[in-house]
Amino acid sequence: MQSGKSFTRWLPLIGLTFAVFVFNTSEFMPIGLLTDIASDLHISDARAGLLISVYAWVVAIMSLPLMIMVSKMELKRLLLSVVGLFVVSHVASAFAEGYYTLMLSRIGVACAHSIFWSIAPPLAVRTVPDGKRALGLSTIATGSSVAMVVGLPLGRVVGLYIGWRMTFFSIAVISAVIFVFLLAVFPQLQSRGRFSVGKLPVLLGNRVLVGVFIMAVLFATAHYTGYSYIEPFLGKVAGMSPDAVTATLVVFGASGMLGSIAFSKYYMKNRRRFAFITTITPALCLLVMQAAAMSVVAMVIVCIIWGAMATAFNIAFQDNTIRFAPEDATSIGMSIFSGIFNLGIGSGAYIGGLVVTHFSLSHIGYAGAAIGLAATAYCVSRFFPNMRRREEATSQNAGSL
């Protein structure tokens, strides 16, 4: 009987993990279906590519204002509302009559994404049994990694054989099933207080939290300066065949599971050391990209280490956001983190494009490494000292009570 109750405690996290899987699959799905969408709607590839850009911009801009608007809602109701919007928007994508209706439906998905990623990590922490915080966050990250390994190729196959519209419709159906599952198993959780715009100066006056956001944008910019162009780099610089490129990208995504495992095993033992390793290692991987391209084996090893540490960084700094944000503003903190991370994604892709255009595709690693090493320097010189002072002050206050 006790084991049955124990398993039931994990059902909300299982539902969240499946939701993470479909949200992440949907976010990057247009990348694999871009040519088919452009052909079917009689538009250029560049115009179809705006579906991806506008999605990222909406997430970056709307994460904070949308989360402030819904910050008072009971959390189960909010989660179900977001998943419901996600389902409806994908049905609209599947039946879109033209480019602008498809764009509008993707904006709906982006709005759902903005709120979902603001509440998913805090919900994972609140629903797992006591003492399992790290495992809850790493499980969420695993759902994200599986989406990159399984979700995107599977969506691509569906799109090739029965059309891109059915890919979006399939996501809607799967999401509807997840909606029903969450409706059945997710507990009611009260919001920890309404957050107003007037409280933002207090939140942004938290030096440690602001440091988390600075680390997020620097890291995302560094990572996506290289990762945005990893496919042509592997083919043209590393000289891999198309099949080898595909296999390497799958391995890159799968390595995120290793980062998730590393987080659950080692993060709580020394959080600062873990943050340092997960910041500097991807920068070093970017630095050696061109040299590693001389050997397929070396390139694959670099991708595995890079992918694992990038995922571990993301989970660790999500935890720092939840840990250092005021209790009534954890979801708001996560919304800022999500928005600024997406700003880093766009900035990295832009910088990578400038390097490719004005210098060479083979140099993207050096550009990303420079930003990544700057993030490491900031981490050591400013972020860690602020974190240490905050923890000492908290400890002293607790001791005086």
| Residues in β-strands, percent | under 5%
Q: Please report the total strand number as a whole number.
A: 0
Compute the number of helices: 15
Over all CA atoms, what is the radius of gyration?
21 Å
Approximately how much helix is present in the residues?
over 70%
What structural class should be given to the helix and strand makeup?
Answer: mainly alpha
pLDDT average, as an integer? 82
Distance between the termini: 40 Å
Q: Which spans have pLDDT < 50 for at least 5 consecutive residues?
A: none
**Which word captures the global form?**
globular
H/E element string? HHHHHHHHHHHHHHH
Can you offer a commentary on this structure?
The chain is mainly alpha-helical. 85% of the residues lie in helices and 0% in strands. It contains 15 helices and no strands. The chain has helices at 2-41, 45-69, 75-94, 99-127, 133-162, 164-185, 200-204, 207-227, 230-237, 242-266, 271-287, 289-292, 296-324, 330-358, 364-400. Helix 5 packs across helix 13 (296-324). The longest helix has 40 residues, at 2-41. The chain is globular, with a radius of gyration of 21 Å. The model has no long low-confidence stretch (mean pLDDT 82).
What tags apply to this protein structure?
mainly alpha; 15 helices; 85% helix
Architecture blueprint of SSEs:
Blueprint: H1 2-41, H2 45-69, H3 75-94, H4 99-127, H5 133-162, H6 164-185, H7 200-204, H8 207-227, H9 230-237, H10 242-266, H11 271-287, H12 289-292, H13 296-324, H14 330-358, H15 364-400
